[in-house]
Amino acid sequence: MVRIALAGGHGGLGREILDVLAASGQHEILILSRRDKPADETREMVGWARVDYNDKEQLVQALQDIHTVLSFIVVAQDKGNVSQRNLIDACVIAGVKRFAPSEWAGASTDGLPWYAGKTAVHQYLQEINREQKKTTKHLETWGIHVDMQNRRAILLADGKNPGYLSLTTVEDVANVVAKAVLYEGQWPEVGGIRGDELSMTDLVALGEKVRGGSFSVEKIKSVHARMGRLTASWAPEMGHTVVSEGMREAAAKIFTAKTILSIYQATWRVSDEWNQLLPDHKFTSVGAFLQEWWSDK
After folding, report:
1. Residue 98 reports pLDDT greater than 60
2. pTM of the model
């Protein structure tokens, strides 16, 4: 049995992974949170510690006898990366064996300023582990400018490559993390989880096949996308709680433009280290996922 702590593990992706870890019955789990334990969290194997990430001593105490820490701290809300840096320092002092920082996005952060903190934390880990091994995981999750419901997409007009994108279901992510926690070998420094990979044009073609009709495709130029200027007639809705409602429309345009450009810069082309280490895990393909959710719509 492994004792695991999830920092910020009761929201979004963290909760998806928590549910799988808890369901396995093989772990003692501790949630580190700035909030009190919610009334609906009644699972016996899930403990709760309300922490102040500015109090490193308190974090060290909370992490006593913890083997693995998974961080889901929202980087955009962690000013100066103070919370994650303190968490990392506390892990070192408490003797935590494995730490996965909040890098649950793509293969890199190039062209995505809101993810700059991920790079800074990665560099900090490299600094404090110059004489030791470190572990981290990266994963890709979505391509929001391909709208399956409304049969439309936005692509880059002057991309110098097909724009390859790695896509992984949240179920696969959660199950791979659960297996990685039990993995007895050394965690790789770069731990890519790749469910499937295809080009943007192939993704649109697959969508057209599953949805049974052609997509309306608009294209934007890289010179505009680089500035965060979206010249398409529409933008996906920005519903993330980190962005205030009054800023979401403008943020969606910037986010979409820069994300589209970053795909053609291979930012979202994720490696497959954990696929190789866990060859028995069967990943869901993009085609199978779309067929399940959209074929009868």
Report:
1. yes
2. 0.59
